[in-house]
Amino acid sequence: MGSLPTNTLIRSVAVDPLNPQRVYAAGPAGVFRSDDGGLTWEATGDGLAGEPVAVTLDPASPQNVIAVTADGSIWRSTDGATIWQAVEAGK
Amino acid sequence: MMSRRTGTLMTLIVGAWLLAACANAAPTKPADSLSTSGGLSDPAGPPVPREIGPSESVALAYDPADGSLLKADRDGLFRWRAESGWENIDIPQNTFGLSGVIINPDQPRMIYASGPGFGVIRSGDSGQNWQSINTGLSSLDVTALALHSFRRDTLYAWVRGEGVYRTEDGGATWGRMPDQGPPDKEVRGLTHSTLPGSMNTGWLYAATPTGAYLSMDCF
Lengths: 91, 219
Fold this sequence. Notes:
The structure holds two protein chains of two kinds.
Chain A: E1 12-15, E2 23-27, E3 30-34, E4 42-43, E5 52-57, E6 65-69, E7 74-77, E8 85-88
Antiparallel strand pairs in A: 1-2, 2-3, 3-4, 5-6, 6-7, 7-8
Chain B: H1 4-12, E1 59-62, E2 69-73, E3 76-81, E4 85-89, E5 100-103, E6 111-115, E7 119-123, E8 131-132, E9 142-147, E10 155-159, E11 163-167, E12 175-176, E13 189-193, E14 203-208, E15 211-214
Antiparallel strand pairs in B: 1-2, 2-3, 3-4, 5-6, 6-7, 7-8, 9-10, 10-11, 11-12, 13-14, 14-15
């Protein structure tokens, strides 16, 4: 576990409504996940290519996390951002 | 009063905010599960994907009614479905695009969107009809929008150069909160959290060009 990169653009934050300790942050440096409300962070992104510009999740099944990258591609993870798969290609 | 945990969070998340007025808490209520079918609001052709610049805002909202995805950005508001891809959603004309989009998980036909120079708009029919809900906002320069985690009539808007505004009646009226916001005032996103320790009903995270910030106290 590590900290969020400092002085780094974060465009979007998403919180697991069933477990608010889990937080996701997205920016050009990647999608980061915290399991302690932001105390520590780890980079996710296995399978995710490109620069994330936003992240959200399914509030009823919050392990389903969705990100969009700068080229317009949509990425989905069904395991809390550990593994990502492309859902829709950008240009 | 601030807990030890709160202080630690404040330090490690890059920064923190100042106090705000407080009320009471209630349990979080989750919404429906995912599927990929459902009604659609006016498609006007798919957007042309393009690179998103560093100064632009992009917001996403998952629709629990049908598993679709809403995206708000400089080009407007779009809905993505697995079977049909991206489709435009018509919104009132604005010059500077959108900065935020919210779907009420308990009432997914209720959508809110915000934009700089545009304020906040609301649709109760999945985006077919919209109304402006800006009464009480000092400016229409709204760069971020958040929905409370369980009080579905409570939303927060970041007004550039002003700070955090709150409505507790679904946008009928807004009032400025006594909070100075994060050190970096270029807020690109707001998110409410029920992280423990709040004297009120939760916290706000802010996404900014210099990192993510957690509010120091209650929202």
